[in-house]
Amino acid sequence: MLRIDDQNLARSLRLFAGMDDGNFDDLMRVAYLQTFPPQIQLITEGEPADFLHIVVEGSVELFARSNDRETTMALVHPVSTFILAAVLKDAVYLMSARTLEKSRILLIPAENIRSVMERDPGFDKAIISELATCYRGVIKAQKDLKLRSGVERLANYLLRQHARQGGNGQLKLHIEKRILAARLGMTPENLSRAFGTLKPYGVAVNGSNVQLTSPTDLAALAKPNPLIDDPAI
Amino acid sequence: MLRIDDQNLARSLRLFAGMDDGNFDDLMRVAYLQTFPPQIQLITEGEPADFLHIVVEGSVELFARSNDRETTMALVHPVSTFILAAVLKDAVYLMSARTLEKSRILLIPAENIRSVMERDPGFDKAIISELATCYRGVIKAQKDLKLRSGVERLANYLLRQHARQGGNGQLKLHIEKRILAARLGMTPENLSRAFGTLKPYGVAVNGSNVQLTSPTDLAALAKPNPLIDDPAI
DNA sequence: CGTTCAATTGATCAGCGTCAAACTAGGTGG
DNA sequence: CCACCTAGTTTGACGCTGATCAATTGAACG
To answer: Do A17 and A126 meet the contact criterion of CB atoms below 8 Å apart?
Structure first.
């Protein structure tokens, strides 16, 4: 059984917002919250989807392997679900997941998700909305990847974080640079060089602190595009 | 009003399979079927989603632009929907679409899709299933792109087509090579060279006919992965 | 038979990954 | 408190994959 404030946290998720109270309680009864250390693999691609996962605290990396290569597909931050599609289709995971830091994960048995779905139209609507949002998120990620160079992806990432953090010329990288590199689809070495390339555009890096001297110049290089960068669209 | 066999065609779509007959009729009443010549742009990214599109005949390319670059995101073949997520979220399109050949497209006003969704739980289930499938399709595409070289993507594409077309050592390319190149995320020049590098693996190309002399050798190079290549997963 | 566009081939170039080494920072134990 | 160790970061050199540019061949169609 979950603590009340954890339940409230889950309730605050869009996914559970419109659902019947009784059904929500049912889900919370069978759900459990677990704290994992960093670098723990939570799920493995190819295995049957047994739980819907929700990151409550910390952060999670979704990644995939084939041959002997590995690539990171996305980072998941609180509070959001991951691998919803596999749970809904009662299929195997297409991605693996590991914690990046100490993280609290809410686990809801897939079976219960599906059975509540059967009888709660409000939940259906929320799932549709969540899925559609995730889908559009992946499309945006793919556009970012295919239409931009590494330097441009970094520039746009910095501008997005800058806006989220108040837009006062300062921003903090909340993740290690090597993780950021993976997130941006490049190697740590190339990320480092990309920061170098951005220096003439008013980007000064000091550890995890970044100063944007001239956001205008940076934007001129980044050419941000709402259809890729706007999280609300 | 649609012809009866067009309605049956639409009815055969998983998306409409589980829905109430009356609601289906409602949708078909407001839907209309239109035939487009090749190279007609059907939708443009950034514009509000006004119709759910269903390719009934022909084929459609989904593509996206940013800065002065363009990339193709997916090809859509009969019978399937596209841009469902934008319709459901009542949002703007994230991709543009154009016909590749003479195509018949079924158009259903977005508003009607959303209103039927409000009152038909069976439709909800189908939408969830369709969306989840689309989502997983994009994930697979992204894995294909990030975990494989161009030659490997081509090799796996050939193996998939080979299996679909009977697996008797023969297959036909149903799309122009330059379209195939775009679909595989490479330039036509590189596709041509990729076919060249596959020659030692028993791939003989003659126009749109391809012979696989030794599917075993090809598979050894391609290292197909069900979590990327299996359409049923 | 000529026009047009796709496909191929070659040469060159840019972006990015890999490898190796130096440097830095954060945490631990003496 | 400092020395040390480990892991992250940076820098440089190099090479590979795939894009670009240019020219040629080939095929389809009026």
So the answer is: yes
Q: Which pLDDT belongs to residue B3?
A: 65
Query: Which residue in B64, B139, B140 is closest to A143 by CB distance?
Result: B64
What are the pLDDT digits (tens) for B129-158? 999 999 999 999 999 999 999 999 999 999
Residues A199-233 pLDDT 10s: 999 999 998 999 999 999 999 999 999 999 999 99
pLDDT digits (tens, 9 = 90+) for A167-210: 899 999 999 999 999 999 999 999 999 999 999 999 999 989 99
Residues shown for chain A: 233
Interatomic CA distance for residues B113 and B174, integer angstroms: 32
CATH architecture of the domain formed by A4-145: Sandwich (2.60)
Q: What is the SS3 assignment for B180? A: helix
Å from the B64 CA to the C9 C1': 30
Q: Do A138 and B134 touch (CB under 8 A)?
A: no
Going from N- to C-terminal start, the domains of chain A cover 4-145, 149-229
**How many Cβ pairs closer than 8 A exist between chain A and B?**
142
Residue A138 CA to C5 C1' — how many Å? 35
Residue A13 has pLDDT above 90, yes or no: no
Cβ-based contacts of B233 with chain A (< 8 Å): 91-92, 94
Q: Which residues in A lie closer than 8 A to residue B67 (C-beta atoms)?
A: 147-148, 223
Contact between residue A84 and residue A52 where contact means Cβ atoms under 8 Å apart: yes
Residue of B nearest to A226 (CA): B46
User: Rounded to a whole number, what is the distance in angstroms from the first to the last CA of chain B?
Assistant: 36
Sheet holding B60-66, edge to edge: B41-43, B96-99, B60-66, B69-76
Amino acid B4: pLDDT: 65
Assess if CATH 3.40.140.10 describes domain A149-229. no
pLDDT digits (tens, 9 = 90+) for A24-82: 989 999 998 999 999 999 999 999 999 999 999 999 999 999 988 999 999 999 989 99
